[in-house]
Amino acid sequence: MKKINVITIDGPSASGKGALARGIAHKFGFNILDSGVLYRLYAYLFNMSFSSNEIANQIERHVEFIKSKEKLLVSYKSTDVTSELRSEIIAKSASEHSSKKEVREALFNIQRNFYDGAGLVADGRDMGTVVFKDAKLKIFLTASPEERAKRRLIELQNLGQEVNMPDLIADIEQRDMKDSSRKLSPLLPAEDAHIIDSSNMKLEEVFSLTEKLIKKEFI
Ligand code: C5P
What is the pLDDT of residues 118-128, one digit of tens each? Predict the structure, then answer.
């Protein structure tokens, strides 16, 4: 298989995939795909009564991603919807939709089209196993549910959303179960993925480990 200039970062909710992806994109000048946001957008637009086909079209025509080192902002029809998309309600609904074939198909080409030949870092659940099987470097990033809930709590508090830890841990565990046990594109490391358990690691440590892997594969 011809390998393409893509780094995939898969893993369960709040394992730090997004922060790692943004850091890599910033340092190496790569484009970025947060595929979870597409599933969240799907849920958001579905709630606005769009059908599967219309949703793909709406995303292609009206959604914009604005990246910085710290954040990936998402706008729909020029309105910033980042905070709405990050809510636990949308996350739950995204997870429910994501087990359906038509949903995964509707989003497949959109995801694949993020690759234009230049470097791309793509994070999600099936980036290394389905969407970018041909990626040069694959990472599976995980951490304990408690650690991930702590990280998600901080993320949601920074967005001004109210949440409590027990509910958050329960939500995260339930979502991971669903994502791992579904038939289509379950959350699994690709055979050729490097598995990183970040439960006891700082982001900088995960970053420097990943950097070494990138230098080995890309430079
Ligand atoms: O990563 P994030 O929490 O934003 O993803 C939201 C939901 O979208 C996940 O719980 C998962 O069900 C779904 N998803 C997926 N495949 C991806 C990315 C996200 O099924 N590649």
Answer: 999 999 999 99
